[in-house]
Amino acid sequence: MFTHKYDAPKNEKGITGLETAIILIAFVVVASVFAFTVLSTGIFASERSKETVFSGLEEAKSSIEPRGSIIAYKGRVDTTSATDAIYKVVFVVSNAVAGEPVDLTPPYDIDGSGTDPDIVSGAEYKTVVSYTDSNQYRPDVPWTIDWVGNANSDSLLEEGEKAEITVWLLERATGVSAATSSNGVGGWDGTVGGILEGGTLLGTNDKFTLEMKPESGAVLTIQRTAPSRLDTVMDLK
Fold it and tell me: Which helix (H) or strand (E) holds 90?
């Protein structure tokens, strides 16, 4: 018989210091992996956000903006019915917010008479001008360029430069002798309803939209309405 309270057999269980260290190390490793994953995800998200911001800035820096008025010109396009219509629209653009140069290599060049453009053979133009009215949409209409003020010899619209853009709205027709007048459209399709070939003429009170689309950057949109009476030269306010 056991007479002392400490003489009874003991059946105690516990963990050693080594086991405790192993468990602690496991917790540290798991926490480190989790922290690394969270940190990596945060860095990746931050980099993507930065790329998005820089991409937006590049888009803004590469944009073009109009300078001054939008000028329209009237031409006689049919001798039989003496039909007049707007045959070209002219506006000046510059580089917005002192941004990146914009390639304005033109697809056409103004001929000697200045009444119609001649196509530039093999021109690798990257800026496109489209035309829209209530009757038609043309994704790539002829346009020419003339530099205003200070400019160098290249086709890049750079900071401090201004370019005069002429958009031609009558499709040239080979073999057609167009009507001529004091402000005529020599060398262009003289058939009634011949604006941009197959469409309708741009006449009084007609609404139209021009979109100048550079290789990169925002699209320049010009929306105007023709006046109720066509003059030789019109400021479309």
Answer: strand 83-95
pLDDT on residue 138: 87
- The token pair that represents 135 in the structure block: 């009757």
Report the chain's C-alpha Rg in angstroms. Answer: 35
Query: Cα separation of 44 and 42, whole Å?
Result: 5
**Nearest 5°: phi and psi at 38?**
-60, -45
In the chain, where are the structural domains located?
16-61, 64-235
Dihedral (CA of 126, 131, 137, 138) sign: negative
Residues 6+ apart with CB under 8 A from 210: 89, 129, 130, 131, 167, 221, 222
CB 47 within 8 A of CB 156: no
φ and ψ at residue 29, rounded to 5 degrees: -65, -45
Q: pLDDT for 42-94, tens place per residue?
A: 665 566 655 555 455 455 455 788 999 999 998 876 556 677 888 889 999 99
Cβ neighbors of 8 (< 8 A, separation 6 or more) are 2
Of how many residues is the chain composed? 237
Q: Which residues of 169-191 are buried (b: 16+ CB within 10 A; e: fewer)?
A: bbbbeeeeebbbeeebbbbbbbe
To the question of pTM greater than 0.70 for the whole model, the response is no
C-alpha 36/C-alpha 43 separation (Å) is 10
Helix ranges (H only) for 62-149 are: none
Which of 114, 98, 97 minimizes the C-alpha distance to 183? 114
